[in-house]
Write a structure and sequence with these properties.
This protein has 15 helices and 22 strands. The protein is α/β, with parallel strands linked by helices and about 500 residues long. The structure holds nicotinamide-adenine-dinucleotide.
């Protein structure tokens, strides 16, 4: 899979440029340590130039008819589809996820782009009657301006598409900072947008780190909208930094998602759903199932089956066809994941399998962690409360449905949840009572589709959603328009 590492640049105002300070950083493959490329380590000055370009481009982009903006996005969708294999291979090298999942990540961007391209011909507002005669009322969606897009590394093509594509269709321009662990994918995304016909300055990419580039985007007075997907800690920092300018801040943050398995569940299906949700993408999904809440009557059997299946999973580079679990993103993540194994043991949970860095067969070159399952976990333990973001899941035993719901809800996050049951009454109660933005019945905690809202309650965000129609609310502002054709002054609430 290795190819020569390249040197990359920022993309500002339609031109490829180095960082003003001349500094660089490297992107490395988490599977092998191979260098993917060298990128500009940008600073505030580079952000300022990108914002200037985006501000200038906004003057004409907002006036391009929305269906025409949609046509460009439609061409982008077709280009991403054409380059799907290439992008998936780059993803498996730069980010580490297995090739089939990398293909899914790219497919999500294709789906989102086709969906949002169609939105160019809708962007519906409302017309309503007026309370006064000879008067016409309507509401329309207006673009807002320059949108700052800050993304994580775990869905390096899908997540930029959730943000950049609707922002563009709605008539905004963009300054994009990809995660510094996956800059090559961010760069390819923007190259393809440009190839599809997005005019210079409409999308700009500035590579670098959160504290330099991200922070400047968030504080820049000419960036009225910031959309961030990242950890809770980063979300709080961004919200605070944006407060002075009263910006629109859209946050998609962490999760601690639970799967409930009732005593009447199809256990084979539940095991499959749990494995896919807990260990897919090596547990590095915001929707990963890091808790399994099992009815006491099936707990032992479920634990046994999960351990046996987890031990059969093959670790390796994502591009090898028989790999089930790829590496985690970097050394810091590996250390954090392992520290939670120690925390879990100190708390008195029982390590049923895994709990170690995987070595041998070339795995030492990358960052591999064995699929890890803890049993006898109490709901208040740190391993059941804190986001580990790795291939670790915690089994919690409950006596009945009500306790299962209580445990599932007993966390600060509210992204995804799932229940395996054959009882339709319980399924509907769970749909009503689980305090998450997404709930699955008889499936794991992952698997969102682009035309439904995506996001979470409680500390997972700040009340917004991406994807579906809901995303339009992040990237537009409502304007209410009153047209009086009576020829006289009519006073609302008075005449
Ligand atoms: P992170 O918070 O470390 O970084 C996210 C992005 O924010 C990166 O581009 C980073 O450079 C930037 N950043 C960091 N500090 C910043 C600051 N002070 N100001 C501005 N930008 C800053 O997260 P990560 O490790 O890249 O991703 C993993 C996290 O993302 C997990 O918590 C995961 O749950 C979450 N996530 C959430 C969703 C969701 O939709 N809810 C989806 C995927 C990932």
């Amino acid at each position: 899979m290795a190819t020569a590492a390249r040197t990359f640049q920022n993309f500002i105002g339609g031109e490829w440029v180095d960082a003003a300070g001349g500094e660089t950083f490297e992107s490395l493959s988490p599977a092998t340590g191979e260098a993917i490329g060298t990128f500009p380590r940008s600073g505030p000055e580079d952000v300022d130039r990108a914002v200037e370009a985006a501000k200038e481009a906004y003057r004409s982009w907002r006036l391009v008819p929305a269906p025409k903006r949609g046509e460009i996005v439609f061409r982008f969708a077709a280009l991403v589809a054409e380059h799907k294999q290439e992008l998936a291979q780059l993803m498996t090298r730069e980010m580490g996820k297995v090739i089939a999942e990398a293909g899914g990540d790219v497919q999500e961007a294709i789906d989102m782009s086709y969906y949002m391209a169609g939105e160019g011909r809708r962007l519906h507002g409302q017309t309503t009657p007026s309370e006064l005669p000879d008067k016409f009322n309507m509401s329309v969606r207006m673009p807002i301006g320059v949108v700052g897009v800050i993304t994580p590394w775990n869905f390096p093509i899908a997540i930029p598409s959730w943000k950049i594509v609707p922002a563009l269709v709605c008539g905004n321009t963009v300054v994009f900072k990809p995660a510094n662990d996956t800059p090559a994918l961010g760069e390819r995304f923007v190259e393809l947008l440009s190839e599809a016909g997005v005019p210079p300055g409409v999308v700009n990419v500035v590579h670098g780190f959160g504290r330099d580039v991200g922070d400047r985007i968030v504080r820049h007075p000419d960036v009225p909208v910031v959309t961030l997907t990242g950890s809770r800690e980063t979300g709080v920092a961004v919200l605070e930094a944006a407060a002075d300018h009263l910006k629109h801040v859209h946050l998609e943050l962490g999760g601690k998602n639970g799967i409930i398995v009732m005593e009447d569940a199809d256990l084979e299906l539940a095991v499959e759903g749990i494995l896919w949700s807990a260990f897919g993408t090596s547990g590095q999904r915001c929707t990963a199932a890091s808790r399994v809440i099992a009815h006491e009557r099936v707990y032992d059997e479920l634990a046994g089956r999960l351990v046996a299946a987890a031990e059969r999973m093959r670790l390796g580079p994502g591009w090898e066809p028989d790999t089930d679990v790829g590496p985690v993103i970097n050394r810091k993540a590996l250390d954090k994941i392992h520290s939670y194994t120690e925390i879990g043991q100190d708390e008195g949970a029982r390590l049923l399998t895994g709990g170690e860095v995987a070595t041998g067969n070339g795995l030492d070159r990358g960052f591999f962690y064995r699929p890890t399952i803890f049993g006898d976990v109490e709901p208040q333990m740190r391993i059941a409360q804190e986001e580990i973001f790795g291939p670790t899941t915690a089994l919690i035993r409950v006596r009945d449905f009500d306790e299962a719901i209580r445990v599932a809800n007993g966390i600060r996050f509210g992204l995804s949840s799932a229940i395996f049951t054959r009882d339709v009454n319980r399924a509907f109660r769970a749909m009503r009572d689980l305090e998450t933005g997404i709930t699955y019945v008889n499936a794991g905690t992952t698997g969102a589709e682009v035309h439904l809202p995506f996001g979470g309650t409680k500390d997972t965000g700040n009340g917004h959603r991406e994807a579906g129609q809901a995303a339009l609310d992040v990237f537009t502002e409502w304007k209410s328009i009153y047209v009086d054709y009576s020829g006289r002054l009519q006073r609302a609430q008075i005449d």
